[in-house]
Q: What sequence folds into this?
């Protein structure tokens, strides 16, 4: 049984349907990427998993339990966390306060997990007393991911983690995501840098107009002439 399994998913916003009959799965410890053109519904998939859209049909199962329609706080408690593309930190709070907010569902902040986050992102230890709004874009993204990791999740959902980063920081961000996955956390990621994402992931989905178009290993999608021509710029 897959860690995350989506079957025949229909979803959107209000009465506007964006996703139609979408199927998707993430195995335990797997690294999966969703790519496709702008407006394809990639981010809507992530938000629907996390209970942030209008569910119109189909099922979402996580770790053997159906989570369709649950609230985000209920989904977090089951072991899945979500890092949205925008507004994913508290700019006026310090780095440490942001990280501690990631453990808000617990009675106390797990210090061992905080140390793991600092070990994974050493710059955050150096800047722990600094307000997040004063950090660089790349450092803010580290805070967002670090906060999500405070609960040691089974599945990390990342929406466009390289968006807005300077080119020299993009590879570093992907390396950090690789390391999170290597540590045993399954990854489901939406990413604009499709070629780099597919090079690194185990499996990829190409979403077009809210529907599955292709699914295969990342390398197979990179080698697919039609995928390269239509979605990867040749």
A:
């Amino acid at each position: 049984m897959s860690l995350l399994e989506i079957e025949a998913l229909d979803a959107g916003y209000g009465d506007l349907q964006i996703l139609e009959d979408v199927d998707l799965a993430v195995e335990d410890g797997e690294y999966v990427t969703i790519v496709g053109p702008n407006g394809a519904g990639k981010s809507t998939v992530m938000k629907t998993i996390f209970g942030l859209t209008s569910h119109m049909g189909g099922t979402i199962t996580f770790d053997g339990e159906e989570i369709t329609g649950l609230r985000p706080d209920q989904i977090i408690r089951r072991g899945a966390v979500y890092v949205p593309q925008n507004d994913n930190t508290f700019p006026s709070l310090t780095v440490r306060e942001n990280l501690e907010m990631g453990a808000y569902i617990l009675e106390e902040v797990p210090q061992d997990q905080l140390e793991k986050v600092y070990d994974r992102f050493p710059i955050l230890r150096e800047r722990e007393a600094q307000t997040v709004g004063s950090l660089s874009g790349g450092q803010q993204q580290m805070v967002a991911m670090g906060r999500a990791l405070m609960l040691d999740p089974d599945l990390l959902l990342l929406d466009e983690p390289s968006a807005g980063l300077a080119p020299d920081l993009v590879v570093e961000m992907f390396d950090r995501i690789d390391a999170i996955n290597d540590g045993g956390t399954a990854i489901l990621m939406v990413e604009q840098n499709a070629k780099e994402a597919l090079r690194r992931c185990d499996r990829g989905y190409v979403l077009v107009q809210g529907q599955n178009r292709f699914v295969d290993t990342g390398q197979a999608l990179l080698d697919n002439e039609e995928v390269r021509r239509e979605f990867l710029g040749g």
